[in-house]
Specification:
With about 375 residues, the chain is an alpha+beta fold. The protein has two domains: about 180 residues, FAD/NAD(P)-binding domain (3-Layer(bba) Sandwich); about 140 residues, no CATH class. Helices cover about 35% and strands about 20% of the residues. The protein has twelve helices and 14 strands. Strands 1, 2, 3, 4, 11, 12, 13 and 14 form an eight-stranded mixed β-sheet that branches. A two-stranded antiparallel ribbon has the order 5-6. Strands 7-10 form a two-stranded antiparallel ribbon. The longest helix is centred in the middle third of the chain and has 20 residues. It binds flavin-adenine dinucleotide. Keywords: Isomerase. It comes from Dioscorea alata (Purple yam). This is Prolycopene isomerase protein. Its EC number is 5.2.1.13.
């Protein structure tokens, strides 16, 4: 997810990053502070950067919608909806613009003959009721929603060359026993590698997760959990392949670790950051993989409903073609039908290619401080 207006790669539930200060309630508690600098000046010269294409110049402009927003979110994938709901629950006026007819993006759904099908995601992390990594549970809870889930007893069943068959059981001990049974000569190596994964996972899981680019938050976490932060800092530059090779020699087992990492990152172990690998390879046993009753599309539906319940707004068939810049700042968006919406901050959950095009110059211009 790409954010314009404030830089943050991750939006985690709980308190808002400092950059959301505009959304703080007034001392009376009845409203949201308005920001003088955010007042609309539609008569001033504005630049536009293409999202998909540039709206033709000289065209009659549709009337600017009167309402202003604190944040406009482009795209109603899970990322955009989490950003939008987190802002809405803190009192910000949020508008989500989605070009399709339903929310969800790659975690969306379609219906045929009374059945609902997932279009993409179906192996769902983040649904447990313990620890700090249950981010879907937390995101839904923030807007007063909860989904019933069905625990998945086996995450993956690997069928690899030389008839290697390994099931990744939800129960960690069952998985490790099955793996060791396949590679008894590598028992110490297997335990060594996965124990290192758990060390990292436990450090991550002990932290309250928010934006890793928020210095004050990181500083605070360091004082609360110095050992855990140092553990993560130590592993930050390392990849799973290097760590695996410290413990394991058998090439077939190393190929299995590659397959494990491919599921996490779609690249092999030597290209997979150790922290990412550890998070997934352990959380599938800690929080587990859980399938939401009604389908994965229910997550986006619940977030979209929660957004509206918290006063936010979502428009479908709203294809953003331009991000409107004023003095280098993103102040609004234009749709393919000519409608324009303005806000203090624009958050793009469209892909980086949809957002910035392939033009590096545009990319640098659009990501400048707002
Ligand atoms: C086939 C497939 C299988 C997957 N399986 C899993 C899995 O099992 N487990 C897992 O954890 N992850 C899985 N993923 C990954 C996961 O689905 C995605 O990482 C996640 O859904 C991405 O969410 P997002 O909100 O960042 O983006 P997206 O879901 O891509 O949402 C972007 C939204 O923005 C909208 N949009 C784009 N441009 C514009 C515009 N100009 N104007 C307005 N709206 C716009 C799009 O219509 C879309 O709704 C899978 C992905 C795919 C494709």
């Amino acid at each position: 997810m790409l954010h314009l207006g404030f830089v943050s790669h991750a939006i985690f539930p709980s308190t808002a990053p400092k950059s959301y200060a505009f959304a703080r309630r007034t001392s009376s508690g009845r409203g949201v502070r308005t920001c003088e600098r955010a007042r609309l000046r539609p008569w001033r010269a504005m630049a536009v950067l293409g999202v998909e294409k540039t709206v033709g110049r000289g065209r009659e402009r549709a009337p600017v919608e009167k309402a202003q927003y604190d944040a406009i979110v482009i795209g109603s994938g899970i990322g955009g909806l989490v950003a939008a709901t987190q802002l809405a629950v803190k009192g910000a006026r949020v508008l989500v613009l989605e070009k399709y007819v339903i929310p969800g993006g790659s975690s969306g759904f379609f219906e045929r003959d009374g059945f609902t099908f997932d279009v993409g995601s179906s192996v769902m992390f983040g649904f447990s009721d313990k620890g700090n990594l249950n981010l879907i549970t937390q995101a839904l809870a923030a807007v007063g929603h909860k989904m019933q889930v069905i625990p998945d007893p086996t995450t993956v069943h690997f069928h690899l060359p030389s008839n290697l068959s390994v099931r990744v059981h939800r129960e960690y001990d069952d998985f490790i026993t099955e793996l060791i049974n396949n590679f008894p000569h590598e028992k110490a190596g297997i335990l060594g590698f996965y124990n290192e994964c758990w060390k990292i996972f436990n450090a991550l899981n002990s932290l309250e997760l928010k934006s890793l680019e928020e210095p004050i938050y990181l500083f605070g976490q360091f004082f609360k959990k110095p050992l855990e932060c140092l553990t993560l800092a130590y592993y930050l530059p390392q990849n799973a392949g290097e760590i695996a090779r410290k413990h394991i020699k058998d090439p077939q087992l190393l190929s299995f670790i590659d397959a494990e990492c491919f599921i996490v990152s779609t690249v092999n172990a030597l290209q997979t950051p150790m922290i990412n690998a550890s998070m997934v390879l352990c959380d599938r046993h800690f929080g587990g993989i859980n399938y939401p009753v009604g389908g994965v599309g229910g997550i986006a539906k619940a977030l979209a409903n929660g957004l509206v319940e918290k006063g936010g707004k979502i428009l479908y068939k709203a294809n953003v073609t331009n991000i409107i810049l004023e003095n280098g700042k993103a102040i609004g968006v234009r749709l393919s039908d000519g409608r324009e919406f303005f806000s203090r901050s624009v958050i793009s959950n469209a892909t980086r290619w949809d957002t910035f095009g392939r033009n590096t110059k545009d990319s640098q211009a659009i990501s400048c401080t707002i």
